[in-house]
Amino acid sequence: MSALSNDHIVTWTLYALIAFSVVTWTVVLLKLLQHLRASAANRGYTRAFWAAPNLAAAADIKAGQGPAARLAARGFEALRPASDTQDLEHAGDRRDLLERCLRQQLQRERRSLEGGLTLLASIGSTSPFVGLFGTVWGIMNALQDITKAGSASLDVVAGPIGEALIATAIGIAVAVPAVLAYNFFLRRMKIISADLEDFATDFVNLAVKTAWRLERPAAERH
Q: Which of 60, 114, 130, 161 has its CA 20 to 30 A from that of 106?
């Protein structure tokens, strides 16, 4: 293989690492925006929810479309009187139906929060090896140049090998932010998921106290 082809392989390896870096920071910014919005929406909705005088009033709250709001909306949907049509989705007693609906929505919210984490983990784990591949190939190219030059002096060796080592350095520089971001967002996802699970448990307990009804007290209907 010609030196030109070897140079091209190292160059495309560096391009791949740059692409990985761009993807990493794009995912980081999108995930950061997602988590900031989710946290703010959850705080606003849960504050309004617990300030409501009863469960029926809480069902009328319009407080954005955050994870907690969507979870509660799914719960209220399960509590509303079911139609005469009986199917597998609505089979079971009221508590089982409510818990199943909340559990399904929790899974949807968790999958949404997990989006992009696999990509960050993949980039974080493979970037050093991609950089190492570029370094090895660059060193092979440098050794071919040394053989052609017939000299192994420092002037001949330092330049090509130094350039080859840049690929490893870039690979590490790409991997570190990806791994840090993955761990950060994984931790944030677990915190938000735990808060949603607590909210779902409280929702079921409130539904039990109201005998699975969303009717307003008689004083509020007049």
A: 60
